[in-house]
Structures are given as structure tokens and as C-alpha cells.
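Subject: Interface between my chains keeps coming out wrong

I've been trying for a while to get a sensible model of this assembly. When I model each chain on its own everything looks fine, but I need the whole thing in one frame so I can look at the contacts. Pasting all components below, labels as-is. Any help appreciated, I'm running out of ideas.
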Amino acid sequence: MTLDLRAVLIITAAALVYAALLPARWRGWALFLGSAAAIYLLQPPLAIRFSDFLLPTATLVLATGLWWATRAPGQTFTREDGLALLLLAGVILALSLMRFVDAPYRLTPSRPPDPLMLAAGLLVVGLVLAGGWQVARRLLPAKGLLALLIVLLVAVFIIWKADALAVAVSAAWRGATGQDMSLASMSDLNWLGFSYVAFRLIHLLRDRMSGLLPALTLREHITYVIFFPSFIAGPIDRAERFADDLRALPALAGLDAPRWIEAATRITAGLVKKFVIADGLAQGMALNSVNAAQTDSPLWLWLLLYGYALRLFFDFSGYTDIAIGLGLLFGVRLPENFNRPYLKTSITAFWQSWHITLSNWARFYVFSPLSRWLLMRQPRPSPALIVLTTQTATMLVIGLWHGVTLNFVIWGVWHGLALFVHKQWSDRTRAWYRRLNETPRRKHLWTAATWFVTFHYVVLGWVWFALPDAGQAARVLLRLFGL
Amino acid sequence: MKHNTWAFAARVVIKAALLFALVNGLFAALRPLDALGRLSLYNIIVPGRERLPYGEDPARAYNLSLNNLPAMLASHVVARPKAEDELRVLLLGDSNTWGWRLQPAETLAGQINAAGLRGADGQRIVAYNLGYPIMSLTKDLLLLDAVMDAQPDLIIWLVTLESFPREKQLFPPIVQNNPERVRDLIARYGLALNAADPRFVTADFWGETLIGQRRAVADWLRLQLYGVSWAATGIDQHIPAEYTPRQSDFEPDASWQDYAEPVLLDGDALAFDVLAAGAARAGDVPLLIINEPMFISSGQNSEIRYNAFYPRWAYDAYRERLAAEAEARGWAYHDWWDAVPPAEFTDSPVHLTPAGSQQVAGMLGELILEMMDG
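Reply #2:
Try treating it as a single job with all components included. I did that and got this:
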């Protein structure tokens, strides 16, 4: 199942039951259990035996383990945490019973592993993690341990996102299950939601290191990491804000019209954006590696590129609208991710309005710490060098988040350089820009020109994003200008 | 009015439901698919297609199969207004004419146009590929009937035995999904086909609503959208480099269709009446009927079969019968069954290589010039 019209209708029906019938004090628990089950139901089927069951299980194990690691100083393991742990294991084992259900009626993407083996495996993994934690805690200071966990998480992320490494993992996994290793591919490891889960977990680890993270129960922590409306395509919320919404659920009016109307509006808009506009544009009107190789005319290449840019926006912002709408149905207001990005008149404004939550994440955990570190260095680098380094590094991380490939590196640098140039330009033209306000006509012309340049710079950058091969992307960029 | 109350939401839902019912009811009453089909981006914003839409792999071929005849024709270059200095030649036929495994420029029509032929008065001879890769004369007649508004000056109909069996006439989806048009042809020309054939797709009221016809509407929309990729790439067929060549060696099997052994192939078995209806529909427009070239094997058991399609007895009887019918009815008929060397066939007994297509196009060009000059 994916987040399509059928899934939206099922979730909406569940939201009605949740709002109308469920006792208010159970709402947080319902979201916790619902999210845990949903990540199995949303996971697409995979070729490697049991992998489409084991990867969601790994998400839950990872999230649980890192809750233990990021507990606030002095935070004890309460009865509620114990109940949450038991229920989580119960969800996993209950879903594994789908093994005994015929395929057409099975809720999991394929046949799960044997429940007894799974229970034994979970127990062993739990014991190994607990033992490892005890050993590591003796060897490393608390912050060092959290830093090591970030490094490990980033390493897993890189392995999963780098083609060659992912294929190697896939081949090894196939070998372990006795499947044909020559068929190993990156698509074997389609770990749904992991990109978002990893960045949420890094946020939790980093904020625990800096002492900013509030104490979260296991239930709150898990629900934040895997909240099903935002599990597939974000947004990346902040834990403290999310926890506030969770804690307010018991006091939330179940069927309050303004919230439900807002949610329905967002969901409808999202469905139209995603399944009508974006999927329509995908029918031959958006650039891809095949039609890019087949198109010689610069005019038609531009048209396909515009199609791709619009498709990307409507697809992603449509998903975000659906996620925000579904979140609202359950009483959680997820953050906005888009704010008319293609209408912005500078690259800085674009990045404040495109995938806002990822940009904010990168600002908090890459740009700001790197800036502080460079500012404290002796001798201190020039301000321009600091800006260049931090902005390029930030955009590089955003690029690599999409995939560890040369194309995403170039795309990240493309935007990092643009942000640097824009910063230099705006620093040097402030007085001139203020004077521009005195002549509205010139201001309008300037606004139109800057919109045109910004939009086309972003659109040209999508060439690196749309085409998997850097050589082809470079050739397409030249062909767009008749070269 | 407050926009955040349940009363407001209920009004929105009720109005939306009424609007939805109204639109569906109107759609069922007006049945606007034909009119919608005539609305097309092709020939206005994007270039018209050089052959009719057909395809099972839209993502790679930028093409799709649909049953909306007006939409198919509106997407074709034949929908362009006829130029004053143009002599219009329409080519009807099966996948041989459509150009299976051939680029648009390599098809018969494409190669005729590349030759830059001109009539006696210096008018440009422009050939239009109206082939469709399914074998049925009724399918050809359906297309001919629909395309007569395009003011042809000459119609060339390439046929082969596989298009003639009476029981195959109504099997193409495009025939089954255009029941009113086909029934009209059956009635108009007294065709010996069953107008009440259960394979005709006849929708009830619910099937005629927007919801019932959502697939047809989506196909029309997808045809327009794929126009952009067609315009950008000039590709309308995915042609894999590798293919299984047509069969050269056969089992000692003389069967054809449902006939295990030779039988008399008369007007009951073969739909010559459909061919005659085509000639009648062409009216004053000259019609050339060509028995299209086919692969002739010299492999194992080739004394029994010419190729995978035809045992010798059936094909010989068909040729004889078609020649006799043409003579009796005064049709301009040419039998080119063995005109192309065996090496110029690709994955079926009638699919040509570019060189084979060029050879047939050259022969057609000469005939066209004869007809136009005559």
C-alpha cells in the first residue's frame, strides 16, 4: 500500500473512529500503535525474503534503541515505557502472524518470517544492544557515545544511499537467504521512510548532546520518529513541537469543524496536486534519462525540463499537503514544507520555501555548528570563505540526503555556490536596493528579472537532479542552450 | 457566512455531490467522448502523429492504444487541412502498413513522402499512414469510413489473408469498442457480420457516466500529454534491438485458423463483402487493393507452409479467389505476394525491414504516379 486515494480513505475512516469513539486519553496510544503498524503496511514488497518485514522492524528497533540512548539525564524507565515496549513487540509479533494468512488477505507486503524465530531474534538483538550499550558507556563519555551513534547512523545512511555499497549489501543479504546474488540491486533495499527516520534520529541525538531535547517517553519518541502521515515524505518535524501536540491530544475536541475542514481541504488539494497534476505531467511531459537522450531540440528540452520542475513540486508538495491534512485529522499539526517556492526572487528565498523542514534541519545541524566552528578557529578564515564553506557544505548534505551520487554532489554545490553569490551580492547592494524602492516601476522590473533568474537557475539545477548520469546531465545542460 | 462550521462543510459536501451527479448525468446524456476526441493538441501545439496511436509501452513509446476514433484521427497528420497543391494518398492496412519495428520515416508512407513525388500538374503527392497493427478488414473499413472526410485523392488498401477470416472481423478491440459505427457499416453495406455480436462493448447508463467512462477520458488526456514527448523525440514506438526472427522451419502442419485440412475458402469463410464495402465507401475516390508481400520460406516443411501464418493450400486459394473477386467487381488490384526477398522480413511473415519497406514504397510510388497521371 502507498499513500494513495484508497489509503487516504482508510486513514480518514480510522480518524473518524479515533475522533468520535476513542476515549481521549487513549489517543496518544492509538497514534503510537497505528504508526507502528502503518510502517509495515506502507512498506512496498521487496525481492529479498522477509526484507520488507525486517526493514520496518529495524526501524522500530533503531528508534527504540536510540530512545534509550537519548533519554534525559535522570529519566527512568517508567511503567508506561515498559507498556509501550511490550505493545511495540506485540504489534511486530501480531503482524508476523500474517504469515498464516492467505496472500490476498495479508496486510503485510509479503509473507512475514516465523513468529517464534522473530521473537527469538528480537530478544537476541535486544540483549546484544543492551550489552553493547553497557560496554560502550564504560568506554566513552556520554556525548562521545551519542556522537558515535550519529556516525553509525550516517554510515548506515551512506551504505543505503550509495549505489555500489547498497548493491553489495543486497548481494550479501541475498547470499544469506540463498537467493540469486547476481540479481542484487539498490531497489532490493527500498527501506521506506529511512531517509526521514535517520534525520529525525540525528536531530534527537544532536539535541540530546546539546541538552535541548526535552524528556520524551518511549511512546512519544517512537510516535515522533514514525508518525505515519509524515513517514513516507516528511515533513521533518521537531520533537519538542511534536511532543507538545501529542500531550495536548487528550484535551482536543474530537470532531471540531475548523480542524476537520482544514484537514479535508489540505488532503483534497494534495490528492489533486499529486495524483492529477504531478502524475499527469509524468505521462511523457517531464524530463527523464530516456527522453533526454532522445530529444535534440532545445525548445522541447526546455519544455520537458519545465514539466519536470512542475511535476517535482506538485508531487512533493501534494504529498506534504496529504501528510499535513492527515496529521490534522489526528490532532497533530505538522510543519509546512513549501511556500510558493517557484515565485521567489532569490535563491535564498527559494531555500526558505522549498522543503523547508529539511532546509531547517540542515541549518540547525550543519550550517550553524560549522559556522560556529569556523568562527572559533585561529586564525579565523575570512567571512567570505566561512560563508562559502558553510553554505556549500549545507547544500552538499541536502544533496547527499537524496542519494550518494555525483549528480547530487554537483546539485548541492550548484545551490551552495548560488547561495554564496547571492549573499555577496545582497551584502554589497543593500543601499542600491533601498533606493530602488523609490522608483516602483524599476522595482517591479527588477523583481521580475530576479524571479526569472532565480526560477531558471533552480530549474537548470533540476537537470542534475532528474538525470542519474552526470555526463548526460552536462550534455543536456549544453543542449538546452543549443551547444 | 462562517467557513469553519459543520453546517458550511455539509453545504459544501451536498453541493459537491449534486454537482458530481449532475456532471455524470450530463455526461451520460450527452456522450461527449466523440466531441472531446476532436479536441486535440496535435496539429496545433504539437505536430500530428505520422501513424495512428497504438502501443503497449507508453513510458518508452510515448504512445498508447485507445478506442476513441475521433481522438485517434485528430492526433494524426491527416487531420491537417489539405493544402491546395496536395494530392492525398491514404494507406490502409495492418502492422505491415503501420510499420512494426520501423521508425515513422521508414514506413511505406514515410518512404513515399521521402521520394518527393509530384503529380502531372506538379502537385505534391503526400502519403498518410492509416495502417493499424491488427488484422481485420472490418477494422480497416471502420478507419476508412472515419477518414473519408480528409478528402483523399487515392486510397491504397494493403491486405493479406489473415485480415479476411469472417470470425476474426469483430475481434479487434477498436471494432468492439465502436459498436454504433460498426453496426452502421453492417447495416449500410449489408455485411454478413453479426450486429448483435456479444463482443460489442455496449455501456448501460452507469457505464456512460463520467465515472463509467473514466478510462476513455484518461486515455484521451494521456494521448494529449504524450504529444509533448512525441514532439520532442519523434518516437512513437519502442523498437528493441533484439527480436525473435520470423519462423523459417515448420512442423508438417497444414492447418489454418480452425481448419485442420484444406477446405473451400469462399465468401462465407472470407469477408470479401467487407472489401466490397470499402470499395463502395471510397466512392469516386480511386481505390487500389494490394495483396501485401509476405515472407516465403524455403526451410523445413516449406512445401506445406509458406510461413507461420499460411499453409500453401489456404494462401493459394485466397490469392486465386481475391484475383477473381477483383476482376469480377472491377477493383484495381495488384498481387505482390512474392515481391520482397525473404531476408527483408523481421519478426513476422508480414513485417518488413527498412530496406523491404523502401522496396514496396518504390513500387507503390510508381503505381501512385500511374494512377495520378492516368
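Reply #3:
Confirming on my end. Chain A has a mean pLDDT of 94.
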